[in-house]
């Protein structure tokens, strides 16, 4: 995985914190340990920075689904990023040709997708890692988290970008609105580098405990410094890193 990360951080434009790769490593370890299978998907791909990092953990049998407006930027209502199918496809061809067969490009406004259309369009039996980083308006966030929760497998992970980000307060508002009116199976377990991570309700405690073990194993004494804190968000416990 680290070779992919090096290439991504050198050659692909986008917005991904430098430590997100550690959490992706945890997700991969957790899913392998518990035989959790499924596709990888992202709404809001831009040039593919996070998408390639996530795709690097996909197995041969798992699809990598890239949903973006791409050239249809007139529907990018909040001007968040600027998807380019041309640049994305060039990166696949030049940087990650081995991923080509597994990547499915879905040029779409996520607001036009229903869960059943999403399943049909992407032909997925279930998604194990779903990044939500498309439109940043409240409506986009509620819609995209709703889509994600419908296709997520048990123990799968959803990550929402720009959570608590000062430039995009609408994302945080969208998250709380989703939790209030639409959530039926997701629970948060981590706030880290501009993202909130959620998993399915029944698996949340197990995921959080496994993450704590991973952090101690990976970072040793660093894990006990002041950057990590247990917080409560909407009544649910959550690890937070700052
Ligand atoms: C902030 S960028 C994504 C950054 C990317 N995840 C990365 O790793 O750098 C937001 C992306 O969302 C796309 N987008 C905006 N509104 C959308 C919508 N309604 N449906 C699908 N994609 C959308 C934009 O075209 C843009 O590529």
Give structural notes.
Helix 1 runs antiparallel to helix 3 and helix 6 crosses helix 7. This protein starts with a helix and ends with a strand. It has a nine-stranded mixed sheet, sandwiched between helices. By secondary structure, the protein is α/β, with parallel strands linked by helices. The protein has a single domain, classed as Vaccinia Virus protein VP39 (Rossmann fold), CATH 3.40.50. Strand 2, helix 4 and strand 3 form a beta-alpha-beta unit.
Give the number of domains. 1
Q: Tell me the fraction of residues in β-strands, as a range.
A: 15-25%
Bound molecules: S-adenosylmethionine
- What is the CATH T-level topology? Rossmann fold
Q: List segments where confidence is low: pLDDT < 50 over at least 5 consecutive residues.
A: none
- State the major sheet: 9 strands, mixed
Order of helices and strands: HHEHEHEHEHEHEEHEE
**Shape annotation:** globular
Which CATH C-level class is it? Alpha Beta
Kindly report the name of the CATH homologous superfamily.
Answer: Vaccinia Virus protein VP39
Q: Which structural class should the secondary elements be placed in?
A: alpha/beta
Number of helices: 8
CATH architecture identity: 3-Layer(aba) Sandwich
Average of the residue pLDDT scores: 94
- Enumerate the strands of the largest sheet in spatial order, edge to edge or round the barrel: 3-2-1-4-5-7-6-9-8
Q: What helical percentage do the residues reach?
A: 25-40%
Distance between the termini: 25 Å
Number of strands: 9
Radius of gyration: 17 Å
Note the main attributes of this structure.
single chain, 242 residues, alpha/beta, Rossmann fold, 8 helices, 9 strands, globular, binds S-adenosylmethionine
